[in-house]
Specification:
heterodimer, A: 171 residues, alpha+beta, 5-stranded antiparallel sheet, two-stranded antiparallel sheet, 8 helices, B: mainly alpha, transport (chain A), AP_mu_sigma_su (chain A)
């Protein structure tokens, strides 16, 4: 299973962190932040042009590996265990980035910063409960668009404060 | 009206980025705001506040568990937007200890039954991440319904949730498993990959319980073209083949097909990995896999290179030929810039080590170590050390060379493995007699080098070197220089306990030299003045060197220094009267002889299991508790007549000795009143503070769980190690290889390889889960069996058929104990049939223990 998905920038600021491993989730928030910092310190010392895999038993328990990819100013990190294939995980990062690209058109770090919930929606379609659910970015896009539509629909009502909804007569 | 003025999440983020200093104050201000807003009754305000809070918690590590109840309120809203925010907050912050966890069940149930598939998916996601046992139990009917839903979107996610539900509540298997298996036959590739993913996880936890589904998996393996599905299937088969070897034969062919046909590197790698780890008996498959590995190794892409080496290292234990074929690639990889690649190459190189090439490989590696960064350098050192010392150095033929290698390692600038080298130096010294001269030579070289004293990683090595020099001083060429090195002022840099060892070695050298001087005196008629000069020099040097230490702060150093100085003081007088030393009553002579005796007897290594080999003699009670101490003490408080006191003279067990000594002192001084006083003091104390004393076990029948490991001190004392065991000596006659003293199994492997992976199993959960799966499968299989074959006839129509029949049997034969074992095959079909009947009749499968 996938134990965690993380995105952090090259200064170590986390932009997204989602933990699926049962044990890690029970840790207090500070410990989770420590994990993120630990991963960042390992990543920042890696030279360029080396393999994208790391053993990370010390942080995430036995049989933990991570794959990372460096895009511009962001590190995309996936932590997984022995029941996932390394190259497949590398592909998954690719899928995630492609989807984000389609979602935001030429995604950059700022998009990720400001669209926190949409990021989560996208990620939730791809990785669910630690399992890979969807690997085709167009399918993910479809689902994400549907969700945004229904959100927008439910949101438009809330623009009208309750106190005046009666006067407006509903939409 | 509130939320018109409320800051939304975007405002928060913008504000955060705009403010230049005071990040924490910004956060705390925002938190205050949020706390106010979240208490509002208006759900929109609440949800926006919650949204901001979850953002702060996720990115900035703010604790949000106090908002749990508010999250629940937000989730109950009918608007999708609020629901999403609420569920996100819940998923992020709820854990097993959240107090309001109970309240969420109903909400989840409502949402799971909703028509809007996105609400369903929200609820499923929430369940998959925070699911507890109760939640799983209460919601498994809904999950069951969703597993059969017509919308593939929902079915996909329900499959994903199943894993968590099973994990927390194994009985859910009975309800949901059938649907899960049905989903195996679906044509939708995404659902299939989800289902197969779930089975992959289940198989890694317990392969035997998924064994009955092997035929279905096989079908998919042959038919499917989806890489993700195939990868997961390969992982499943890898686990299954390790418990059922015949499966390997069947599966090897399709796997080879895939390996040849596919373009996807991930699939190729997974095939290779499966073949090499679980199907390693099938030569054709292995050869194909090794060919593919070679392709990986010559790629430029560092990822592929690393994975190729990794696969090779999995193959190494059983197929060393594969590693040897690719030797050049491995050696080249040692100098790669990628640390992963280097490490794998190092491990592979170590796997290739044999008696003949150990010196050559070590030479290569030492050169690399000198050139590398500290991390890799130490990795090299530790792997060389561990390989060479495996099985009591069985790979080493030339110990002289190995000992000088150890000395060389100490000279490598980045070496931080002092302790291991120390251990090996001393170990070799004790076990291999013939290597002692070389050891002494190497130690001498290390000791006289003042530069090494400054490096604190090397201190353990120096302590070993000094111990070796002192212990085997008879092999040293120049004791005078040795002593000079041992007392040089720069040894101040050493920590006290090592200095103590240094001083003790000086003592041993001194005794040796004096001993030989005195014996030379006796044998020859007179002494030559040069010999006299030299011994006097030696003694003077020692005295000058050790004298400052007699005032040292550390107790050990001080004591040993004073011992040495006292001995010198006594010996000096007798050396001075050198001419008439025919007199054997000279005190120094006698004392020296005595000391020599003491140092000459060797303490061999003792196996860790030696104590267990001593049979407990009759009458010795090892388990009695100390509550009877008063009675026992009372016995020994009597003065000297009791014969048990006399035998305690020989005891080395210090506590009893102290007690006896105290008692003897007490009794020898004036009256026995103080002795009696001590025991009555105890009684008095007990009377006054009785409630604080632990109850003795005799009076307390239900405290049998308390550890009974405090034997009455004096009983045990008479048994201690008066007879040290002789270590077993195995002579190895192989090409004049020196004798290495070996012991039985106790404590040989000191260095644990970092590659040993420990799998933590939560025993009871896994057990109940696998039992549930087996019973569910059995119900399925029973139905199919009745259709296909009647009764218990031994139809061997196809191998698959037999395997299908036999596999349920095998799955039943699971031990009900803690360790997993491979299923044992039975010949008696009738026995299995009775068992299957029993199994299907009762809900809980009672698996009998075969090995009883």
């Amino acid at each position: 299973m996938i134990k965690a998905v993380m995105m952090m920038n090259t200064q170590g600021k986390p932009r997204l962190a989602k933990f699926y491993d049962f044990l890690v989730r029970c840790l207090p928030v500070e410990k989770q932040q420590e994990l993120i910092r630990g991963v960042f310190s390992v990543l920042s010392s890696r030279p360029e042009n080396v393999s994208n895999f790391l053993e990370i038993d010390s942080l995430f328990g036995p049989d933990s590996r991570l794959v990372y990819k460096h895009y511009a100013t962001l590190y995309f990190v996936l932590v997984f265990d022995g029941s996932e294939n390394e190259l497949a995980m590398l592909d998954l990062i690719q899928v995630l980035v492609e989807t984000l690209d389609k979602c935001f058109s030429n995604v950059c770090e700022l998009d990720i910063v400001f669209n926190y919930s949409k990021m989560h929606t996208v990620l939730d379609e791809i990785v669910f409960g630690g399992q890979v659910l969807e690997t085709r970015s167009d399918e993910v896009m479809k689902a994400v668009e549907e969700i945004s539509k229904s959100e927008a629909a439910s949101n438009s009502i809330s623009l009208v404060p309750k106190s005046v909804s009666g006067w407006r007569g509903g939409r | 009206m509130d939320n018109l003025f409320q800051r939304s999440l975007e405002d928060l983020i913008k504000g955060f980025r705009l403010q230049l200093l005071g990040e924490s104050s910004f956060i705390s201000r925002a938190l205050e705001e949020i706390r106010r807003e979240v208490k509002a009754t208006d759900l929109s305000t609440k949800s926006t506040a919650l949204h901001k809070l979850s953002y702060l918690a996720a990115i900035h590590g703010v604790d949000m568990s106090w908002a749990a109840f508010h999250a629940l309120e937000v989730v109950s809203s009918s608007r999708f937007h609020h629901k999403r925010i609420g569920y996100q907050a819940i998923t992020q912050s709820f854990h097993d200890q959240t107090s309001v966890l109970l309240l969420i069940t109903n909400q989840l149930r409502k949402d799971l039954n909703s028509v809007n598939e996105y609400e369903v998916s929200l609820a499923l996601e929430c369940l998959s991440r925070i699911g507890t046992r109760d939640l799983a139990r209460d919601l498994s009917p809904e999950v069951f319904t969703l597993l059969g839903s017509s919308k593939s979107f929902v079915r996909k996610k329900a499959t994903g949730v199943v894993l968590r539900v099973f994990d927390k509540y194994p009985d859910a298997v009975k309800v949901c498993f059938k649907r899960l298996v049905e989903n195996l036959e679906t044509s939708d590739p995404q659902i299939l990959s989800a289902v197969v993913g779930v089975f992959c996880e289940l198989a890694s936890k317990d392969p035997t319980s998924c064994l009955p589904l092997a035929p279905e998996f096989f079908k998919i393996l042959v038919d499917s073209r989806n890489n993700w599905v195939l990868i997961k299937l390969l992982k499943i088969f890898s686990k299954l083949a390790s418990v059922e070897p015949r499966l390997g034969r069947k599966v090897a062919e399709p796997i080879c097909e895939h390996m040849k046909r596919t373009v996807a590197k991930s699939l190729v790698f997974e095939c290779v990995r499966t073949v090499v780890s679980s199907l390693s008996d099938h030569e054709a498959a292995v050869e194909l896999a090794v060919a593919k590995i070679r392709e990986f190794l010559v790629e430029d892409d560092p990822n592929l290179k690393y994975l190729g080496l990794h696969a090779l290292s999995i193959a190494a234990p059983k197929h060393l030929w594969a590693v040897l074929e690719n030797k050049e690639a491995v050696v080249k990889a040692l100098s790669d810039e990628d640390p992963n690649v280097k490490l794998e190459a190092l491990h592979l190189l170590m796997a290739m080590v044999t008696e003949d090439n150990v010196s050559e490989i070590s030479r290569i590696l030492m050169n690399y170590a000198l050139k590398s960064d500290p991390l890799f350098c130490n990795e090299i050192i530790i792997s060389v050390l561990s390989v060479c010392s495996r099985n009591a150095y069985e790979i080493i033929v030339d110990f002289d060379w190995y000992v000088s290698l150890l000395g060389e390692m100490a000279r490598i600038p980045h070496c931080q493995r002092g302790e291991e080298i120390e251990h090996q130096l001393i170990d070799i010294g004790m076990r291999v007699r013939d290597a002692r001269p070389q050891l002494v030579r190497v130690s001498w070289a290390l000791l006289i080098d003042p530069a090494l004293l400054g490096n604190m990683f090397l201190h353990p090595i120096l302590s070993a070197a000094s111990w070796v020099s002192g212990e085997y001083v008879e092999f040293s060429k120049n004791p005078y220089e040795l002593v000079e090195a041992l007392v040089q002022p720069r040894t101040d840099l050493l920590p006290p306990y090592i200095r103590a060892i240094y001083i003790h070695s000086v003592f041993k050298v001194l005794v040796f030299c004096l001993g030989s001087y005195f014996s030379a005196q006796e044998s020859s008629s007179g002494s030559s003045s040069t010999v006299y000069e030299s011994i006097l020099n030696l003694v003077n040097v020692i005295e000058i060197g050790v004298w400052p230490l007699s005032g040292a702060y550390d107790v050990e150093v001080q004591e040993r220094a004073k011992n040495v100085l006292g001995f010198i003081g006594m010996a000096k007088q007798d050396i001075a009267k050198n001419v008439n030393l025919q007199d054997n009553d000279a005190e120094a002579c006698r004392v020296t002889a005595f000391m020599e005796d003491m140092f000459s007897e060797e303490l061999g290594p003792i196996s860790a299991n030696a104590q267990e080999k001593v049979c407990v003699p009759d009458g010795l009670e090892l388990e009695e508790n100390l509550g009877d101490l008063e009675e026992i003490c009372g016995k020994f408080l009597k003065p000297v007549e009791s014969d048990s006191v006399s035998c305690t003279d020989k005891i080395s067990f210090s506590v009893s000795k102290l007690r006896i000594r105290d008692q003897q002192e007490a009794s020898s001084s004036s009256t026995s009143l103080p002795a009696k006083a001590s025991s009555s003091l105890l009684a008095e104390h007990r009377k006054r503070h009785g409630m604080y004393y632990l109850t003795s076990e005799k009076n307390d029948p239900d405290s049998n769980g308390t550890p009974k490991d405090y034997p009455p001190a004096n009983d045990l004392a008479s048994e201690i190690l008066l007879d040290p065991l002789d270590p077993k000596r195995k002579a190895k006659h192989r090409k004049s290889r020196p004798v290495v003293v070996k012991l039985d199994e106790g404590g040989e492997s000191r260095i644990t390889t970092s590659q040993a992976k420990t799998k933590q199993e939560s025993v009871t959960d896994d057990e109940s889960l696998s039992r549930a799966i087996q019973s569910a499968l059995l119900v399925n299989k029973k139905g199919k069996e009745r259709e296909k074959c009647e009764g218990n006839s031994n139809l061997v129509v196809q191998e698959e058929e037999t395997s299908r029949i036999e596999k349920p049997q095998n799955s039943e034969k699971k031990k009900k104990k803690k360790k997993k074992k491979n299923g044992e095959r039975t010949s008696g079909k009738h026995r299995s049939r009775r068992r299957s009947e029993v199994a299907s009749s009762s809900e809980q499968v009672e698996i009998p223990d075969l090995l009883l």
